[in-house]
Specification:
4-stranded antiparallel sheet; 168 residues; 5-stranded mixed sheet; alpha+beta
Length: 168
């Protein structure tokens, strides 16, 4: 009798587990690597720039905007957060003449800053470790992602200037 009860419990347990697995397989699963979808060109163009001194840091929203020195380009810096680690920050540039959109930078949480240079290029600053700052200057025809520079590829051969110091 005891063995029969154990067999019945085992059969019921396996049946219930199978039902749960089948139901879970039929449910849409969230994509944990890409909870914030890639920004479409129109979304980048339409994205509102923050007003005031304290932008709202909401996932998928613009946290800073700036015109290029010549006024032709408009850069928008998006905050996506940790749900998309390689796209924690994204920097897009919109051409004011033809409304084309280019993603210049996609970086993780170590991205420090970006700024326009007088020659209408953009300089991205990145924290490459304790006492280390990497900078990359990009023109409007370039695009870079932190995923491209893992495993020691963030170096001068790949266009990065690396500076080691206690202060920047």
């Amino acid at each position: 009798m005891k063995n029969l009860l154990i067999i019945i419990l085992l059969v019921v347990s396996v049946t219930m587990a199978s039902i749960i697995i089948i139901k879970c397989k039929n449910q849409p699963q969230p994509n944990m690597n890409n909870q914030i979808a890639l920004h479409s060109n129109q979304e980048v163009i339409d994205a509102a720039c923050p007003t005031g001194e304290n932008p709202k840091w909401l996932g998928g929203k613009v946290i800073s905007c700036e015109k290029s020195p010549n006024g032709r380009f408009f850069a928008k810096f998006f905050y996506n957060g940790l749900s998309v680690p390689d796209r924690y920050y994204e920097l897009f540039v919109v051409d004011a003449i033809d409304k084309s959109v280019k993603r210049l930078w996609a970086g993780d949480f170590r991205t420090l800053d970006w700024e326009w240079r007088k020659d209408n290029k953009i300089e991205v600053k990145y924290n490459c470790g304790s006492g280390c700052q990497a900078t990359k200057i990009m023109n409007m025809n370039e695009s870079a992602s932190i995923a491209d520079y893992r495993d020691g590829r963030m170096n001068e051969e790949n266009g990065w200037k690396i500076k080691f110091t206690g202060n920047f």
